[in-house]
Specification:
The structure holds two protein chains of two kinds. By secondary structure, chain A is mainly β. Chain A has two helices and 25 strands. Chain A has a domain of about 80 residues. Chain B has one domain.
Chain lengths: ~450, ~140
């Protein structure tokens, strides 16, 4: 095992990446292990407190079966678990706890690069929601989406409506680092202020700042809008600015129009300056280093496109989309296609789509065909999914110009809380002449008062 | 002084919070305009551009939470998701994302065409999935 030294702030402590990761995995596994008995301990008490408490939880257990490129059989067993409990007071305010995460144990050979076990606490926070002003206060591991921020952090978040159409939010904490192979920021904070008219617009101004060892790491400011000057038309989008590099990171705006009930049209425009947008991105595929097949910091992308959907008959719709990619450095490209879909909610559905990626460089061109169907028969749901991708140039695809994937899956609902399912994947692709993968799944829901409370908060 | 001003502004607002749980049961992808004639109608999940625009709407996450659990966001934005999406959502084949089929090969092209699109779900920070090949 190769160790990567990692400088830990606050002392001259050098610990290996592997040791640090092992500690984190065990900490996450302990939290995961604690969630199960906690959930089961709370459930028997539920009838006594049903009037004031709502309990929601879901356990998904997966067993995957496949053979790797190196001819190793792997059987990773996963547990995805989420649990929340909410207490509502007489004034309508609610205090709730939300925890979710996953763990993996390899029953045979290792399924990933490092360990036979892996775990991640995806979220775990205590929340207070006020009866007035949409007041929200969260503490713990959470995903904050506010203007320029789309950030997982361990910390605090608060938002509230204010007078005269204003609202504001603020957050501060430590960024969640799942794979600490590179030193990153150790503090992140920010805020967003919005002004709204419920019928016509919401305009938001936001900033995000982060520090690494007390030094500037990320500083971003942005504006986001939802604008609907007339009914059935709106413009949605945002712009973000990087104060560290002194450049616009991204502009992304979409205009939507529904002239008649069955027809929806949209146009989109986005531009991305790579040197500003990917600054401080440590994902190894997206660094400014051509030696590791990274990206070109001099590149600027302008994407223009649009599309629409039209419901011809009840439950049958056609859709089309087009996007033109204009680059400063690379050759321009186009992505376009269409889709026909049939859908009867909670009963059956099917769809067919065809898309083309067109580019001056044949290595970046392909045709994609997709056909899917779903049918519900009593307590059984069956799905079939077929994807066919034809690559114009097979040189980068191990000499394979035609990749297909066929997935057949089924679920059986034993009762309203318990479901079993399985899927079988066959594919012919650049890595395998014939690949067969299997998956078995067990889902247990322990939501309480679902029907009485309206929308089921599960995978909807 | 700032907390006092915030308290006064909040007291003046006196808006009613949105319901913690959506009062009507919703199945599948809802067309919010069937009931809502104000700004909530813009959240129409059946609109072909809803996926493109949902980040801006997520700025009102308390509204999303009336129907969605926190895990719904984490399914895509967790940055370490390993379960193949069509296994996790095989009863929703109409979803265009997360990726389906042999995307491992296709991502070589799509990642070149628009690498910014990867960051939206896979995050800004390095992770084990990418390191497996991109060392």
């Amino acid at each position: 095992m190769t160790s990567v030294n990692y400088y830990e702030k606050g002392g001259d402590v050098l610990i290996s990446h592997h040791e640090k990761k092992s500690r984190r995995i065990w900490a996450n596994l302990l939290v995961m292990a604690g969630m199960v008995p906690a959930a089961w301990a709370v459930l028997p008490a539920q009838p006594l407190m049903a009037a004031d408490y709502a309990i929601s939880g879901e356990s998904n257990t997966y067993l995957r079966m496949k053979t790797t490129v190196n001819k190793r059989d792997i059987y990773p067993l996963y547990e995805y678990l989420r649990f929340s409990v909410a207490s509502t007071e007489q004034d309508g305010s609610t205090t709730s706890l939300h925890i979710g995460g996953w763990g993996r144990v390899d029953l045979a050979d290792k399924s990933s690069r490092d360990d036979n076990t892996e775990a991640d606490l995806q979220f775990g926070y205590l929340s207070f929601q006020g009866a007035k002003n949409n007041l929200v206060v969260n503490a713990g591991r959470q995903f904050v989406v506010e203007g320029v921020a789309a950030q997982r952090l361990d910390g605090l978040y608060a938002r509230s409506d204010f007078a005269a159409g204003f609202a504001a939010s603020a957050y501060a904490g430590t960024p969640v680092v799942t794979e600490p192979t590179l030193r990153a920021d150790d503090f992140v904070g920010g805020a967003r202020v919005t002004h709204s008219d419920k019928k016509y617009y919401t305009v938001g101004l936001s900033f995000l700042t982060s520090l690494a060892g007390g030094d500037r790491y990320r500083e971003e400011e942005g504006i986001d809008i939802w604008l609907s000057p007339v009914k059935l038309f709106d413009v949605t989008g945002s712009s973000s600015y990087n104060s560290v590099t002194d450049g616009w990171m991204e502009h992304a705006y979409t205009a939507s129009f529904a002239p008649i009930e069955n027809l929806r049209l949209y146009a989109e425009l986005s531009s991305t300056n790579y040197s500003d947008y990917f600054y401080r991105v440590t994902t190894s595929a997206l660094v400014f280093d051509p030696l590791v097949n990274g990206i070109d910091p001099n590149e600027e992308l302008l994407a223009l496109g649009g599309g629409g959907s039209y419901t011809m008959l009840k439950n049958i719709a056609v859709a089309a989309d087009y996007r033109h990619y204009d680059y400063d450095v690379a050759r321009d490209g186009n992505y376009y296609g269409g889709k026909v879909s049939y859908w009867v909610p909670d009963s059956q559905g099917a769809g067919l789509s065809v898309h083309r990626m067109d580019n001056g460089d044949s290595r970046l061109e392909y045709m994609e065909y997709r056909l899917y169907a779903m049918k519900k028969l009593g307590r059984t749901q069956l799905t079939l999914d077929f994807i066919d991708v034809n690559y114009d140039d097979d040189a980068r695809m191990n000499g394979v110009d035609h990749a297909i994937a066929l997935v057949a899956a089924g679920t059986y609902e034993i009762n309203k809380d318990l479901r079993v399912g399985a899927s079988l994947d066959y594919s012919h692709n650049p890595f395998f002449d014939h690949e067969l993968k299997g998956l078995a799944k067990l889902t247990y829901l322990f939501d309480v008062n679902r029907s009485a409370e309206g929308g089921t908060k599960s995978e909807n | 002084m700032v907390p006092l001003m915030a308290w006064i502004l909040g007291a003046c607002a006196n808006t009613a919070s949105v319901a913690r749980i959506h009062p009507e049961a919703v199945q599948g992808l809802p067309n919010c305009t069937e009931c809502h004639t104000d700004s909530w109608g813009a959240l129409n999940h059946q609109a072909p551009d809803f996926m493109i625009k949902h980040k801006v709407y997520a700025g009102s996450k308390f509204a999303c939470a009336t129907c969605h659990e926190e895990s719904f966001c984490a399914d895509c934005h967790a940055h370490k998701e390993e379960i193949k999406p069509n296994d996790k959502y095989f009863n929703s084949p109409e979803r265009s994302l997360p990726h389906r089929g042999d995307y491992l090969s296709q991502h070589k092209i799509d990642g070149r065409i628009n690498p910014a699109s990867c960051v939206k779900c896979h995050g800004r920070q390095n992770n084990e999935r990418c390191i497996t090949c991109h060392r």
